[in-house]
Amino acid sequence: TGTNRLQAANPVQINENAASNDATESTVINTNPAVHTAAEQRTIEAYQKSVDNQLLNWINKVKDAFRSGDMTASKMRKVVGEVTENAASAIKEAADIDVAGYKHMIDGSAVRHIDIRHGANGEADNSMQNAQDVARVKFVLDDFDTCNLVKDENGRIKTSATFRNSDNTSAPLLRFSKKINGTYYVVEAVPDSKDKKLHIITAYMQ
Fold first, then answer.
1. Are 181 and 36 in contact (CB under 8 A)?
2. Is the N or C terminus of the chain more exposed, i.e. has fewer CB atoms within 10 Å?
3. CA angle, 142 as apex, 138 and 188 as ends, to 5°?
């Protein structure tokens, strides 16, 4: 819609493998079926099974590198998955950017940000203290409930300080959400560029 188009606003800066059985139970969310409806429990069970083990191993490798003092780990990158047709359609509607054929990416700096803000000793919360929840991010990106531009309190579109469009303007930020037990949010920078990559900035639960 017109209100979602970037040119109508003033931007401001600011699963390759299925999870193994022992991984599916490890999560910060409440998985007790006694306190959920049948539909909620189906979503929770699908979420539990969505751990990408290759991504999980990569996340742990990045975190180990940071713990050892290797700050070059911020440059490590991994493809999370292809952008689905549904996601491409939602992004086109929200941001007027054609991302057909793009991939979701995550880098070491995003892993570090998530750990600092939402990890076991998170500055904001502890919602992502379990690395397996971070490794379920593709489930949210593939099966999201909402996809919206991130805006400040004045309604201006927030943009990435790192990722840029082909015309060298700052890439807008979009937030995906999925209700599980609480809501899982993923924020991505969505640059309109030949690189065809959407970059995960952060992930957290509320």
1. yes
2. N
3. 65
